[in-house]
Amino acid sequence: MTPPPCGCADVGSKSMAAMEPTIFPASETGEENQSLISDVPGRLKHGGFYDDPLLSHEAQCDVFYIAWAILLECFTGLDNVCFGFRSEHMIAAEYGTYSTDGHTSAMQVQVLADQSVQNLRAGKHAALVLLPESKARTHFNTTLTICSLDNKQDGNAHSSSWCKIHMRVDPVTLNTVLSWNATFMTRTQAESISNTYTKIFREIAAHQETIISTLKYCSEHDERQILAWQGSPMSNVQRCIHQAISEQGTLRPDAEAVCAWDGSFSYAQLLYLSDRLASHLQTLGIGPEVFVPICFDKSKWTVVVMLAILKAGGIFVPLDPTQPLLRLQALSHKVEAKTILCSPHHQAMLESVAPELIPVDTQLFERLAEHRGEVDCGSWDNGAYMIFTSGTTGEPKGALIQHGALLSSALAHGPAMMMDNDTRSLQFAASTFDVSITEILSCLILGGCVCIPSEEARLNAIEEAITQLQANWALLTPTFVKFVNPANVPSLKTLVTGGEAMTQAVIRSWSHINLINCYGPAETSVVSHVHRGMREGKNPLNIGRQVGIHCWVVDRYNHDRLMPIGAVGELVIEGHTLAREYYKELDKTNEAFIVDPAWTYHQPHSDNPRRMYKTGDLVRYNHDGTFHIAGRKDAQIKFHGQRIELGEIEHHINASASIKHVMVVLPKKGFCEGRLLAIVQLSDALANDLVPKGQPYKLIDGALASIAHAKVEETKALLAERLPAYMVPSIWLPLEFIPRLQSGKLDRKQTGKWVEEDMTEAFYRQLNPIAINGDSKTLTFSNETESELHKVWTHVLNLKSEQLGLNQSFLSVGGDSISAMQVMSECRKRRLGLNVSHIISCKSITALALQVRGIEKPTLLQESVDAPFGLSPIQKLYFSRPNHDQGHYNQSFLLRTSRHIVEADLRKAMEIIIRRHSMLRARFSRDAGGEWYQRVTEEVTSSYRLRTIEVASRDELNHSLVDSQTCLDYSNGPLIATDLIYEIGEQQRLFVVAHHLVIDLVSWRIILQELEELLLRPEAVSDMDRPLPFQTWCKMQQDHAIAQTPEQALPIHGIPDSNVSYWGMEDVPSVCGQVTGQGFEIGPAQTSLILSKCHEALRTEIPDVLMAAMIFSFGQTFTDRPIPAVFPEGHGRESWDHSTDLSNEVGWFTTIYPVFAGSNASSSLIDTIKMVKDGRRKVPDSGRPYFASRWLTQAGEEAFSRHWPLEITFNYLPVGSLFENSFHPLTSYPT
């Protein structure tokens, strides 16, 4: 082999310093049941190349490493790649050996798209270096070895455990073997890599003059697989949107179509009102292809207006009333609008936007003439609506969607996102955001109800709004979802996240309901990909499969080149859901929407021509045909769910005469993470001495600092007149100089790296000096409210106290709408009532303090200490058992800790928790009549036991744990015990056990989350709201149960009596010693189906399927008797009063209730599943009223006692529902 001219460089060489890590990405899921190392054989032979007599054997071998370098460039997207390298010829070469003294040889290759293979072979872009193994581990995870495959010892020489992929090539036979770590990637991915390497090798071997950018990467094997993944034909519905909605109205005229804060409409009412308005609009000249802007706050009338414009044949164009007037005027002018429909109170503001304004409210319809019959104008290929998206030239682009496109998309993405005629869709998104189209039109197309909160509730009380509107389906951004507590929105059954990447935090919090990840540009009618069943262990960047369309991954620089499976490329979408055009933007339309790329010519297809949309999003195929989001190929970003072209912001900043150069970035890490940052260099006219002074990044200081601040404020004011608030950067860096490339362009890559990685805290703290704002560094608070607000702002915005004055606005110090929500949340913890609009609009903390209203502490938080009170239903059941005092009845968990815990810190945290949760201080006794009661004490130290123990063996550990299990005493305490365990050779562990009388699994989640928080942040106790006392809840529940009749608690008839005599258990005590256990396991594929896909058809939940399987099996097995009812457990925290929050209370709340699927065995498992699903849904509040009536009232005991003793009980605990973050369970012992 011809050695690279630089030879084998020393580890300290310049080439080593410039070497970037090349880490091959792991596939979505490795096959952990595979052996550690698996092999895929292959063959490279290409006769034409090896018949060339002018090429030496060494020169021919150069192609091996060049092909591997190109493959790595293809899969990683890096221009400079490195990999472990070995060749038999290296041993005798003068420039070094493969490995010596703990060093490893690595090949570094610069793969330039505009270079030919021959130039790469000339050696100008390759270097061989020696790395210490420790450095090699961080710089690459693939190796290439050129050797005889018969020499197994040599062939395995580089197969280090830290290398995930190892390609061996025989230079004589041209056979290959790809070995890979089977937990790192799947066989499908490995086969794709082997086939891609063969494809690249044959391409470059046959055509030495080929430019790298024109090479075809995708092998025939991969292309066949990609074609197979396209699945069913693309959706193509040639009808109008309003026709589909009218059909739903015909089928279900009385069903609720709109449920808004300002009123509701049935389908019949919605169709009638929209027909009347549509008829009126037609008299004004509105028909097919006529644009009609609409400008509304959240209201029921928005839906009427949208539907009326569609019926009249027009195209509705949503405008946001909060955006600058200049922007509204520009958008209206672009579509040549003659008429705008709006909320009445926006009429005055919009007078300069269009010639005619129509305010829509009840008074308008009182004036409109009656209209009989349905208005239905236009065709499926007419425009329906237009959504403006950000544009690089400073002008928004209008994506024009036709009726057929949205209808084709909605009928595909709606069911995929679990929308149907039972859906109550939360209309949360702004009308200018394309998600609102799905929330409104897709929901109506499928017969659901649109639930519209007020703008006030949307920003400040969304949990209450969801509950009041009884919304059961929502599409929210992950950024916003963190402000919603799942326990406070019991009606929500399906949560879809989109607009930005999902996070693991969302999965941890919401996987107990139907959690869905979705993706889709506005240009493809809102949603193109759906991933259902998101749960612990799934990658949040997996956007799932396409719905109603076909998708392809192409080279980011050349859409005529298809990428192989696993390689990063641009996502291209094909189908009938695409926008018609960017309105009046022919060049941009032709750039984004392409026809018949080269790779389509040999594919079988019915459509001709084939039209596709280039999304600009970088993705890669996973091994199962789903897609993994990998970033953007341009400067477009997603910010709080909104698509933003940074170039549009820069365009408007450059319009300021004060600005010479500007860069706008959204850092992914560092001190400015997650906030729009404008880096500006002021104009020469203002400061002609601004030149580099040895520091590449230096803030303007001295006498010019105040001038710079004034100019920045002028520029921000200019932006506020032209851009929406979310597009105005919250942080500004006026630098003396922004580094340039040799071409004179701004060095965006280096500056972006500096912001994310190299900006110091000292530099960041200079960004908002009080001196610039003319404020005194000595803060004098007029009252406690100002002081508390100041603390909250500095905490949320990551500022030091001296950086924040009292006379600065929230936006001026880096705040935005999302951080304003965080401020609102923190203020409420301090009993300070504020709305998001107050925080954003007030000019200073001083002014904001005047807006604060006090939040009273709940009156129900008082409890009587040492006063007896009644038991909860499940506690009554426990004491009703004759053997309740035999043995121990505890729940316990053994946890490992991810950080060392000091006993003193643990003791302090435990005592805080025991003080917070009174049931951990409870005691249980009998009264004079023999009835059990409970009371709470003020005793803390006697309520728990904490030990540090050292053990030398597992037997010794078990003995200690048994001692902790048996030390609990519900009459005298303790009720909870904690052991901090040290065992030789083991990580520190924590054992916690509590008596079941005072705790359940939800309580464990609360306790462990609080324990973790207190160990990390001891001051966190001040942030924790006092929970509702269990004593208060027991009294409330008893009163409510007495007020209800048994028929109200369980409005179901026919529940069969218990028949324990069938089992020979009549009058036989049920004790643990008589229990026989049977267990079984199912494989990963079946588990995956049960947890996700099998619920799609019937809209079931996991307990439905599991109980149905049990009931069906019972009927098939025990044919000599009727099928009994099954009694599942519930968490018991459903309150009839939505203002009662039980989500943070510790106690034993568990309920048990009947589910009955009929006495006779069904011959169909599907029918059984349907009956179980219906049976569960019919029981009010998951059985809490039934269980309370049974154990707390005389009437309930008489009505329901025949159900007991229970024949079959059922309990389902979702995977990963208890532990997260720093604590990880080793073993759990619920007893």
Automatic annotation (TrEMBL):
SUPFAM superfamilies (alphabetical): Acetyl-CoA synthetase-like, ACP-like, CoA-dependent acyltransferases
Source species, domain of life: Eukaryota
Isomerase in keyword set: yes
Family as reported in the entry's similarity comment: Belongs to the NRP synthetase family.
Keyword set includes Phosphoprotein: yes
Residue stretches making up the Carrier domain: 780-856
InterPro entries: AA_adenyl_dom (IPR010071), ACP-like_sf (IPR036736), AMP-bd_C_sf (IPR045851), AMP-binding_CS (IPR020845), AMP-dep_synth/lig_dom (IPR000873), ANL_N_sf (IPR042099), CAT-like_dom_sf (IPR023213), Condensation_dom (IPR001242)
Gene Ontology MF term list: isomerase activity; ligase activity
Organism phylogeny: Eukaryota, Fungi, Dikarya, Ascomycota, Pezizomycotina
Residue ranges of coiled coil: none
Alphabetized UniProt keyword annotations: Isomerase, Ligase, Phosphopantetheine, Phosphoprotein
Pfam families attached to this UniProt entry: AMP-binding (PF00501), Condensation (PF00668), PP-binding (PF00550)
Originating species: Fusarium langsethiae
Identification of the protein by name: Non-ribosomal peptide synthetase
